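Anyone have tokens for VOC domain-containing protein? Sequence:
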Amino acid sequence: MTKPVVHFEIGGLDLDRLVSFYSELFGWQLQPAGPEYSLIPGGGNDVSIGGGLLQTHGEMPPCVTVYIAVDDRAGELGGTTVVEPTAVAGIGQFALFRDLDGNVVGLLQDDDQRTAEPGACRSQLGVDLRADGRIAGGPTAFGPV
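Reply: yep, here.
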């Protein structure tokens, strides 16, 4: 079965500027989720997925990351870990890996060990975002990414 994209993030050095730009460009009604994150609504009766705008810092450059509901096979195929599997309260676990060409991709697995449904994390992901761009909670074990 094909694995769906379930969440996305757009990161930049100035969150207020990102919020202003994307809300004006696309008409998004962004929801603040801490000082360095704003949620982009999605899901519901809409066919869109949710996402977030993220304040980046230091070594984390501006970026776009997509999160895919997927089991842990990236490492087997030559990918490398960027962020170890990390718990997100009420959601499950996420991790980031770098593919063979250097693209960073997010993985998301829900608490029930099923793959996440599109929009599943739209209301909570990012609430506990740390200054380094990672979600607080620490590593958990859903295998190598």
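Confidence is low (pLDDT under 50) at residues 114-145.
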